[in-house]
Amino acid sequence: MEQATNFKRELLxxxxxxxxFAISLVGxxxxxxxxxxxxxxxxxxxxxxxEMGTNMKAWLFTILRNELYSKLRKRGxxxxxxxxxxxxxxxxxxxxYGALDxxxxxxxxxxLPAEQRExxxxxxxxxxxxxxxxxxxxxxxxxxxxxxxxxxxxxxEILKICDEDQFGPDAVSxxxxxxxxxx
Length: 183
What we know:
Rna Polymerase Sigma Factor, Chain: A; Arc Repressor Mutant, subunit A; transcription
């Protein structure tokens, strides 16, 4: 019991020197106080390893210095991302859903009549204007517009798409990779 009391007294007596040493190492008072607190906690947990009568100040300074080095090594492996920009850039929708959606789309596209498939590919996938698609297909402008419209409706029917919210990521993964979630 007396040894624990002596340890505590000596520990408390070294606090001002320990704090001054911590401030000299890190330069900021709040970080120095955190470092001293961590040092005291470690020293208290390992007090049975300290031999009374030896230099406690040197022992505490060694613990503090090692604690600082550990924190600096850890900080070197961590990335500061308080605004979430890095996290957002790393988040992405699962690729397998996109691949499965593309397979479903290709199957649905294959079910369209040839004229509708050609019209939707020319206008939708190739990015041609209705006029250009009509010229390539050799039909009237109104005919190509009609074919594209019927193709879109048939694709929606085959794929069971009711509204535009069903395009892109599913309801589970969308919030995880959106800016609104990260902010």
